[in-house]
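Key idea: predict the complex, not the pieces.
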Amino acid sequence: MDIIIVGFGAIGKGVAKVLYEKREYLKKNFEEFRVVAITDSSGAAIDEDGLDLLKAIEVKEKTGKIKNYPEKGKEISSIDVIRNVDADVVVEVTPSNLETGEPAKTHILESFKNKKHVVTANKGPLALCYRELIEEAKKYNVIFRHEASVGGAMPIINLAKETLAGNEILSIRGILNGTTNYILTKMEKEGLDFETALKEAKELGIAETDPTQDIEGLDTAAKIVILANSIMGMNKTIKDVKVKGIKRITPEALFLANKRGYTIKLIGQIKDGYLIVEPMLVPIDSPLNVKGTLNVAMFETDLAKEVVVVGRGAGPIETASAILSDLIHIYQATKR
Amino acid sequence: MDIIIVGFGAIGKGVAKVLYEKREYLKKNFEEFRVVAITDSSGAAIDEDGLDLLKAIEVKEKTGKIKNYPEKGKEISSIDVIRNVDADVVVEVTPSNLETGEPAKTHILESFKNKKHVVTANKGPLALCYRELIEEAKKYNVIFRHEASVGGAMPIINLAKETLAGNEILSIRGILNGTTNYILTKMEKEGLDFETALKEAKELGIAETDPTQDIEGLDTAAKIVILANSIMGMNKTIKDVKVKGIKRITPEALFLANKRGYTIKLIGQIKDGYLIVEPMLVPIDSPLNVKGTLNVAMFETDLAKEVVVVGRGAGPIETASAILSDLIHIYQATKR
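Result:
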């Protein structure tokens, strides 16, 4: 199976690394998974016989630009690569933009038009125009998968749609952002105030330099929109979500909650058609009370009743894990 | 898709009920799922145009025998039905026998020979001769699924093999038996001794009349054999499991464990090639510390790292949920 990786930041490199490390396993169990092009904003490396993934990672880390890949690197746009390089699947992993969805949206639509299946981790287009993407994928008869867009390595979208196939998902509640969970856990365990806990999360590389989207709940909001649309058949955008972040949570509030047998978590929830993100009291012994950067989701379903899943919500290899499972699904659905 | 239900106890009736309740959903999203035969030890009801599932349940509940289904009921063996009734899939849900695997083993092998896919909840043959079943299914080019055999509605086998596809599963630990979890939870919360808690579980219908297989850990042992073989590619049988039950756990032991921040759970685990079932200390804040009749499994994987899933391990509708997801998978893999 021939793959184009569009976007070569931490996640793109994670995908390349995983495809390299799993090359023998993939060849033995399925077929060779070749990366025939990698793009970033500088240009692309293209080799129809398959790129040397270790070299691609090295060039990117040393020079910051994939166009410097020896001989096969050049200045060419991602769109031109999607149009002109022969491949089965495009892995779209450029940074998420929750306002415009670009450039991911254009990359995805262009891939569909060129009869290429798409796997993405990108929340932007999914939170802004999910229906349009689904319709277009259908129109061009290609597969569109995005397990990695919510909860990183934590199985959630494919779990609900496939492992729990036949169940109606009645509600979803969960912690879908590792940064805020880390901050709240630190505040609870060590009595730190919000700013100090945030500073520490930044120093450890858990919080981004600009953590606004995380702490204000927008990242969680984007994720519950994706879940509402993809799992529960709704047609929502990020504007439909009532959002409240964690900035005003104090260590005193956590202490008082603890005394009553509760903790406070930033919960995203979809229930009775409403999408809400807000700090909520969670019983100490609830399965939703997971610590550190972990993510958790609780489904309420008609047949299986409650199902809870816990996993790592971020990290390049963890995210690549979800992308790999989508790639294997596409292989199985189209080639075996 | 045409289905034969072999075995019409609680689970078989649960499958019939779910297929009845979901008939419109299935027709709309896939195609009509018709039950063309139902068998029990008395005989069978057969209708190639599809049985009236509500009537079948009613007849079974009133008379105890499916052969009494009006007009279409007759004395005929399950084997003859498997051989002679035209259908796509056999749902094998006779009672599990962990010593011989029969009659399920014969039913399953006979289905394969007659080019029928099989979905089962039956632990017996899976724990005793997994490889043989897999080889036979392969030989006859049919699909063999058994999500319901471990953890009821809790996604576990398909979760590991499909949602986490591409991951190597390094170890599995979990609570896979709801009866023992209920007993230990009761003993911990109310200070009851083992016998009293067991008696209560029996009165509530949570424990079976003969709960030996549950409390001695054999049920959990069968389940970890199934997981070792189906998820981790091993070739084990129930004789390879080191098993210790919960009979000797005292409320004092639970009290002391609690005082140190632990609880005691009957844990099944597969690690470094060893299969072990025994009561273990589990930290109070571990995700494995789930209460009541809940089941839980923790996978350690190479890419996604730790993934935990919690769900209902038993109940006819919950088990039927897992069977339905397998039926939908077979439909999608063979008919769409």
